[in-house]
Every structure is written in structure tokens, then in C-alpha cells.
Amino acid sequence: MTTPVVGIDIGGTKTAAALVDRVGQVLERREVPTPARSGPGAVLDAAARLATDLLGASTGPVGVGTAGTVDPATGGIRYATDSLPGWTGTPVADALAARLGRGVRVTNDVNAAALGECWAGAGRDRAHVLLVAVGTGLGGAVVRNGRVEAGVRGAAGEVGHLPAPGAERLRCGCGRYGHLEAIASGSGLAAAYSIETGTHVTGRTVADRAAAGDGVAQQVVERAGTVLGAALAGLVALLDPDAVLVTGGAAGALLPAASAAYSAEVPAGWADVPLLPATLGADAVVVGAARLAID
Predict the structure, then answer these.
(1) 77 vs 62, 91, 133, CA distance in Å?
(2) Fewest CB atoms within 10 Å of the CB: 20, 54, 82, 247?
(3) Strand 62-66 and strand 104-108: pairing?
(4) Distance CA 133, CA 141 (A)
(5) What is residue 22's DSSP assignment?
(6) Tens digits of per-residue pLDDT, 72-109?
């Protein structure tokens, strides 16, 4: 039997590691809260401990999907938000290789999720996929023939900073206003609901209230999903993928409106390009990271 590999998911809230077989199935999984406030060294130590628990059954390199923009040449972090304080500039590949005693390959977590979905999820057997991750923020990735199109800076596919109608009063995670992330994300739902009601709640709460019949929450969710779907229709014409996949904690709430807007707006020449929910859930990043290690 071919030896399985280890994939790691480093996020601002949790860090996970999994032993993944050569067809993309998770055999074992470990997870701990990310010690983000303790600094990059503590985060790397936590990731290394999880991986070490699984490495007895694995040989070869380890793959990592992490928050932040990753330099594709070095595996270091070019830029990261405050969800991981001090993460910018961290040499993740080299630092984990030193801790684990083997090679480490690193990519952005959304890139890893896209790799995972194209290997063992909703994008399986598709040559060219755009994946959009709708969580607290909004990320994107493009995979062609099983490989991430990273771009010069490792940030290709970052759809969150496209201009978006209706987001003019909403602040993006980058600090500017009017971007797609500012409206079509968990933080965007929270901000829009706050403007409408003066009530400060999480994006998840907005989605829950919408499902329970809160009229304002329903309007916020509907607007966000409509803007997202229209943007994705335009991106299909630009990128010409086989499919668009949507994943993340806020994806379920936005997908109904997004799907309707996407169908209405996608140009006729791309009408056969489906908009699909991703299927791997919380395992997408570790599975994609494992795929990166195999490659």
C-alpha cells in the first residue's frame, strides 16, 4: 500500500493536521486551538506537535495550508492579517522543516482547499476550477490541471478585493471600502446588519436570524448573495473555468441568492459552467495540503 501523507491547516482560530491516503481520504485527524496571541513560534510548535503525532505512519514531505499570502518560492508569509499576529514574514516552510526533520511545502489555505476539492471533492475530474471561500472574509483560488495558479506574489484568485455595488459603506478586511469581501462575507453580513439595525452581532447570527424569518437579516443575506453571484458570473467570463465552487462557513446562507444571480448574469457562452457547493467541509484544507505534499 502506498504510504499516506500529512496535511496541516493553520488558521487564526484552529490548527489541524490529518493523515491522508493517496486517494484523498482522511485516515486520522488532530485539531487544537491556534495559540495565535502567543506568537508565530507557538503556532508553529502547535502545528509540529499535531503533525508529529501522525508522522509515524508517513514518510516524505508535509503539506501546509495557512492563512496569509504565501511566497510560492520560499514558503514564507508575505502578508497576513491580525488574525495571526506577527505572521507576516514567518518562514513557515523552513521553520516547520526544522521542527519535523523533513521537507515542507506551503500554500495559502484557500489554495489548499481548492486543491483538496479538485482532488477528492466537488471539483474532481475538472481541469480548471475557481473556488471561492466565504467565511469571516472572502478568499479565492484558481486550479488548473491539478495545480494552483499562484501568480507572481502567490495571491492570484483573491476575488475579495473586486469593486462591488452596495458595499460603498462597508469596510473590507484590507481597510478600504466598497470591495466584494466587505459585503459577501461573514464580517460583511455583520457590518451591513449593524448599519440597518444598530445591533452588533456576528455574521453567523445574521444568517441564523435570516433563516428564522428576520426580515432585515433576510434582506442583508439576499443582497450579499446577489452581489456575490453576479461577481462570479463576471469572473467566469474572465477565467473560463469548468466549474465554480463555493465553500466556507457563510456559503450556505449566501448560495441560494448567489445561484439565482449567477444564473441570471452568466453570459450565454458560459451558461454550462456550474456554480456548486464544495463538499469536503472542514477537511478541504488538510486534504489539499496533503495533495501539495504528494506533488
Answers:
(1) 17, 6, 20
(2) 82
(3) parallel
(4) 9
(5) T
(6) 899 999 998 888 999 999 999 999 999 999 999 999 99
